[in-house]
Amino acid sequence: MHEMSITRSMLEIARREMEVNGIHALRKLKVRIGELTAVEPDTLKFCFDVAIKGTPFQGAVLEIEEVPLGGRCRVCGGEVRITAFDNRCPKCGSTDIERVSGHELDIISMEGD
Length: 113
Ligand SMILES: [Zn+2]
Fold this sequence. Notes:
- This protein is of the alpha+beta class.
- The protein has a domain at about 1-70 and about 100-110: hypothetical protein PF0899 fold, CATH 3.30.2320.50.
- It is about 30% helix and about 30% strand.
- The strands form 2 sheets. A 3-stranded mixed β-sheet has the order 2-1-6, with helices on one face. It has a 3-stranded antiparallel β-sheet with strand order 4-3-5, with no helix packed on it.
- Strand 1, helix 2 and strand 2 form a beta-alpha-beta unit.
- Helix 1 crosses helix 2.
- It is elongated and about 55 Å long.
- The mean pLDDT is about 90.
- The structure holds zinc ion.
């Protein structure tokens, strides 16, 4: 499953960070997920709960921030919300849009003791 391998690599990063910072128990993991990653937040939460069972992460909460697919107009620099149907700059009407967000898959912050 897509989400399970993402969960595993997130936990691997978290584990290394915990080691470096001397954290023994993870309380909260906050991640940012772009629309283009095709990750289902609910599925990711489910995988997270399954993956942390019986590990030092047990009891930790996963917080997900979803990032919509966004773009920037190459003509006027205006911000464009990209949809499947209409990718036109609201300011100048140009269709020359550069994708700037939606690919995110990052750990934003961690809390632990
Ligand atoms: Zn424009």
